Amino acid sequence: MIDAMGATDLNDFSVPKQTVFGLVARSVGNLQGVDLLLRAERIVEARTITRCLVENLVLLASIYARPDRTLEELQRDFVKSRVVRADILAKGGSDVIEPEQLARLQAFASDLRGRHPKTSYLNQTRLAADTFAEGAMATYSLLSDDAAHATVASLARHILLQQSGARELIPYPEPSVSEACHTAATATNMTLGLLLGSRDIFGNALGEQDILKLHTELSAVKARWPPRPGTLDPT
What distance in Å separates the CA atoms of residue 60 and residue 66, rounded to the nearest whole number? Predict the structure, then answer.
């Protein structure tokens, strides 16, 4: 991607565009992770990583719509998480942290607060608002509820109520073919959406033919779904 645009280093690009490259790299790893987890029939874990791909797309869409504001939100989130961690350590670790280390920790948190008085965690709904990824929030909520978070829906996968009234613990719930296909399709679509958004951010200079090839291949794969009866192979 960098070579195709005649650059040699990430420093040749603005910070928002460097962030886009980071999102592309992260998405490549996430997509490969989903593939490996589906092949291992770890549906909960695969859907959790698929949720990460939705987050990648939402953040990229926000950068596309409002780059400066999005980078400010990322910075505020970075500071917020570190200040909160420092406060927790300072409060709960006072009995085990050496006084000198505790003083350094408190000074670190105080300095961050002074330089960045406004802090807040990233809010996916706020990032997605008025962007091309706004519709993805329904999928994000679904994946959060049935896989990523410890909710009634996600825990129900692991505690099976038998007809006798006994309950069985299931560490690795058996995925259905339809859910495996849905997970693979969602992960792939989110990645394609991110690549298309990246192309637009870089002014249509980003591997147009490669993206078109991926889209063609995805369409061909979809035409073969569902997979062979009795298998979970989404390809």
Answer: 10
H/E element, 232: none
- Three-state DSSP at 167 gives strand
Q: 113, 76 in Cβ contact below 8 A?
A: no
Contact 194, 26 (CB under 8 A): no
The answer for residues whose C-beta is within 8 angstroms of residue 13's C-beta and 6 or more apart is 7, 21
Cβ–Cβ contacts within 10 Å for residue 1, how many? 17
> Which pLDDT score, from 0 to 100, does residue 8 have?
86
- As a whole number of angstroms, the distance between CA 63 and CA 33 comes to 25
Residue ranges for the chain with pLDDT beneath 50? 232, 234-235
| pLDDT value at residue 62 | 96
Round to whole Å and give the CA distance between 174 and 160.
12
Determine the Cα–Cα distance for residues 35 and 51; give it in Å rounded to an integer: 14
Closest C-alpha to 49, from 61, 23, 31: 31
- End-to-end CA distance of the chain, in Å? 27
Identify the residue whose tokens are 């859910």. 179
